[in-house]
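User: ok so my PI wants both of these folded by tonight, can you help

Assistant: No problem, let's get them done. Here's the first:
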Amino acid sequence: MKTFEFLKVLDKKEFLRFNDFVSSPFFNKRMDLIKLMEILKENYPLFEVTEEEIYKSVYGKTEYNRQVTRNLISRVQALLDKYLTQLGIEKEKTFSDISFAYELARRGKPERVKKVLDKGIVELKNETYSVEYLKKLFEYLETMNSLSVERENYKLKVEDSVLRGECAADYFLLSFLRIANEFAVFKYVSRYEKNKELFNGFMNYFDFEKYLENLKSLNSEYYAITSIFYYGLLSKVNDPVGRNRDKLKTLVFENLDSMKLKDQYTCWTMLFASYIFTETVQNKPVHKELHEINKVFVQRNLVPRDEIGYVMGSNYHNIAMQAIISKDFDWAEEFLNKYKDHIEPGNRENMYCVLMASCLFGKKEYVRCIDFLSKAVSDNVMTKILIRSTYIKCYYELSYFDEAESAIEALRMFIYQNRELTPQIKRSLPDFIKYSRLLLKAKSANGNLPEEIYITAKNSGGFNSKSWVIEKMEELLK
C-alpha cells in the first residue's frame, strides 16, 4: 500500500526493531502509535490495510476521521526518521564515542573520558581505508584536546600537539589528492573546459615531490598511499609519455601487500583510471596491459566493494569488458560467473546478461548470446543501443535475414524517437545502420559486395561497431 511506502526502506529485521523502538517510552509515549505498529506488523510486508481500517482498529470508533489518521501516519514517519538516525549513530562508532565523551565531561568524569577516547583510538586499527582512519583519529585527538584530558601535563600536551599536527597534514593532503583525482576523472568524462585556477591554486604552490621525499625519509606509513594518489593524479592530467603511470605501477606493486584493504582497492582504481581517464596520447592499445593488471587484482580477490560488501557494478563491468576487448573470453566468462552473486541484487541480472552476451558474441556463440540478450532489461540508453546492435550482428552471423532487417529498422526508429541521445552518439549510429543493411543485402545475395562500399566504410570516421563491419566486408570480398 502506497500510504506506507516509506516503511519499505526497512528489511524485516529492521522493521521488527522499529516496532520495539516505537514501543519504547524513551522514544514514544503515544499508545495510538504503538497500536498502529501492531497492525502494520500483522500486515508486513505489503501493508494492505486501509486508512479507515486503521482508524477503527486504533481508536475503536465507527465514524472515520481522515485527518486524525493522516496525523497518526505522519507521526510514524517522524519516528522512522529518528529510528534511522539512531541506526546511523550505532554504525558510526567515532561519532558515538565522541558524543559520549562530551556527556561524560559535562558530568565531571575526565578519567572515563580518557578511557573512552583511548579505547576508540585503539579500535581504529580495524579501519581499512587510510583516509577514513586519519579522519577519525584526528577527531578523537581533537576531542581529547578540547576536553583538556591530562590538562596539567604539558609534556604530553606537546606530544599531543605534534601528533595532531601530523595527523591533520596527512589527512588533509590525502583528502585533497583524492578529491583532485575525482575532479580529473569528472573533467575527462564531461569535457569540462573552464579555464579557472583550481583549489585556490594549491597544486601550483605546494611542493608535493619534496613532501613525498620527506615522508619516505621518515618511514611514514602514509608515504605509499599518498604517493599513489599523487602519481595517479599526474597520470591523468600531466603524463605526455606515460612516465607517471609507470611510476604509479611501480609504487602499487611494491606496496600492495602491506596496505589496508580499501587502500588496495584505491590502487586498482588509480591504475584503471590512469589508462582510461587520461590526457596521455596512447601510441598503442592498452587494453591487454590493463587486463593483465586486472587479473592480478582479481586473483588476489581485490575487486573493490562498497560499504555493504557488494562488488561495485561499474568495476564488474570494466574488468569484464577489458577481458572481452582483449579477447580473453574464457577468463571473462569465468569472472562473470564467479562474481555475479557479489553484485548488488537490484542490477545484478541485467548487468550479468548484457556482459555475458558480449562475451559470448566474442566467442561466436551467437545463439547463446541472443538468449542472454533476451533476458536483459535496461533503462540505460547506451545499454539499449548495445543490446540492439548486438542483436543485429548475431542475426547477421546466423544468416537470420528477416530478423536482422527487423532489428535494423527497430534501431533506426529508436534513434529517431529517442531524445536522450547525445549528438556524438547519434552521429555514430546512422553509418552502422547503413552498412549493416548493405552487408545483409550482400550476404543474402551470395556475397556480392561492391568494393567501393568497403573502401568508403574503411575511410570513414569512427562509427558504432566499425571494426566488425569492416571485418564482415573483408570476408565477403575474399
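One down. Here's the second:
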Amino acid sequence: MTSQHGTDADSTAQSAESPDLETDAFLRIDDLTAGELEALLEFATTVKQGDASPRLPEATMAMLFEKPSTRTRISFETGMTELGGHAIFLGPDDIQLGHGEPLRDTARVLGRYADGVMARMFDHGDLETLATHADGPVINGLTDDAHPCQTLADLLTIRETHTDPTVAWVGDGNNVGQSFVVGAAMAGVDVRVATPEGYAMDEKIFQRASNFGAEPVLTSDPEEAVEGADIVYTDVWVSMGQESERDDRLSSFRSGGFQVNESLLSGTDLSVMHCLPAHRGEEISDEVMESGRMLAWDQAENRLHAQKALMAALFAWAIIDTLQVTSERPPEHTDSTLWLAICINHLWSDFPHLQHRCPERFNAVAS
C-alpha cells in the first residue's frame, strides 16, 4: 500500500524536528517529538516500499523476554537480520532479571556485549532501570504500562489506509490503548475511548495527549464511541498477568456490550484494528476477524517495517554505512533520507557511547 499522507521532502524537512532525546532509549511513544515521529513513520514507509535499504552490519541486539511473544520476537529478529545484524533471544529460562544479581548489573554487562537491547517486561520501572544502566539503545518491546512499537505499526497502518480518520478505542484501557492514545495525539489522529467503569486508562495518559493539543472523547458506551468513526480498535480483555481477574473482567465487558461484532458495526463501513493475539468470541467475534474490515494483518506486518526504521535510527553508527558518508554530498533521494540525515547531524551529541566502536566513521562525519 501507499501512504495517503505523503509529503514532499522540502515540506517535511521544514516541519520535522531534530531528535531531542535525553537518552537513546525508546520506552514510551512520546520519547519522540511529534516531528521525529512523523519522520520515522515516513522513513518506515520508504523502507517498506523498498525505496530505502538501511543496513546495520555486524550489529548485535539482545532481546530480553519476561513475557512470551510471537509477533514481537519474530518481527524484531527478522528485522535485525534483514538489516544485516544479529538478534539474540534471551527468554525467562535464559536470564533471571533481578534474581541473583541486581538488574542494573545485568544492564551494564549487556551494554558491553551488545549494541542495544530490546526488552519485553512486566514492570515498566524495571525497563527504566535497564535503560539507565545499559550503554546503548534500549527499546520497549512491551511493558504493563506501554507498547510504543505497536503504536508505530498502528500509525503506519492508518497512514496507508485512511486520511484524517477518527479512531474509536473500545475495550480495556490497557498498555496498547494507552500508547495509542498518546501516539495518535502526536500524529493528529482524533480518538474516542470507550472503557467500562473500573477499566479506564490512567488519567496521566490524557494529560500527555493534551501536550500535543488533543482531547480524546471519553465514554463508557461503545455505540457512542463508534458512531461516525472510521476505525474501531480493540484488544484482549484479559492481558498476561491478569488471569485471576478473568471472570470479573469478562462479566464487565460482556454486560457493557464491548465486543466488536457485526451488531456494533451494523450500518457502518468501519475498519477494525487489533494488535493480536485475538481472543475470538470475547473482545471480537470470529465473523469480524475474518471480514474485509480487518486491518490486524497489516498491523502485524507493519511491526516489521516500523521496527526496522526504529532500529536503523537508534543504531545510528551503522547508518553511516548506508549513506556512504564521504567528502561528497549524500545521495539525493526522497523523504527516506530525512530521518537518516537527522541522525547523522546529532551523532556526536546523542550517541557519544558509540564513538569508540567506529572512530573512522565518526571522523568521516566530522570532516
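The beta strands are 25-26, 60-65, 86-90, 116-120, 138-142, 166-170, 190-194, 217-219, 231-234, 271-274. The chain has two domains: 9-146+304-366, 148-299. Good luck tonight!
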